[in-house]
């Protein structure tokens, strides 16, 4: 009897293991199917969102073609607010605001587009044209190596610097493997090091331009800059819409700004648009 009972327990244990493995397979299959169904659902939602965004973009383009520039600009801004970011979207928004006579918002969108497509020739021309209208004439040419900084994005400058450093390390390793060529390889290593330092300087300047400084753009036709952060403070100068100013301090709804002809001054936050960092 004991042997049968023991045998029975062994039989029940074997049956339970088979049932458990079958249940585990079914559970795994159910999980795979669930993930597959969820993936299809998410892909469908993404495609629908892309289709809606494309339709909204085309609708905004149609408004622009019909001469409804402010309505088109607002439609582009709505797409940006929804997370649809691209150089083409910013560029079109800049064009629409430019046609609507709002140089401040035009320059803001051109500068955002420039971060994504710094070598776009049409974008560079339009941004320069808007700045010349604000400035009242041609802009002074950038001096020296600063002319090259806007030609690449921060990611591209980072890639250049890292590539040059890796190339220098490879030359040092090659010099160790080939002592006879060490002298000539050392010259190339020094040259790469100098170029890498210059590229690192450009990277630092590009980072400062995008993330290191706070820039605001005058959004109305004109704005008053004062000597102090009070409405009763004497007027320093009046700046036209679209003027780009670097912020150095903030106090009670006022911003201390530089890049002025008569020195630093204070402008109300409500009179400017902040360039995102």
Molecular structure report:
This protein is of the alpha+beta class. Residues 1-13 have low confidence and may be disordered. Helix 6 (154-177) packs antiparallel against helix 7. The strands form two sheets. The protein has a five-stranded antiparallel beta sheet with strand order 6-5-4-1-7. Strands 2-3 form a two-stranded antiparallel sheet. It folds into three domains: 1-140, Tetratricopeptide repeat domain (Serine Threonine Protein Phosphatase 5, Tetratricopeptide repeat); 147-207; 214-274, SH3 Domains (SH3 type barrels), CATH 2.30.30.40. It is extended, with a radius of gyration of 31 Å. It contains seven helices and seven strands.
What secondary-structure arrangement, pairings included, does this model have?
Elements: H1 2-65, H2 69-81, H3 87-99, H4 103-116, H5 121-135, H6 154-177, H7 182-212, E1 214-218, E2 222-226, E3 235-240, E4 244-251, E5 254-257, E6 265-268, E7 272-274
Antiparallel strand pairs: 1-4, 1-7, 2-3, 4-5, 5-6
Helix pairs in contact: 1-2, 2-3, 3-4, 4-5, 6-7
Can you tag this structure with a few keywords?
single chain, 277 residues, alpha+beta, Serine Threonine Protein Phosphatase 5, Tetratricopeptide repeat, SH3 type barrels, 3 domains, five-stranded antiparallel sheet, 7 strands, disordered N terminus
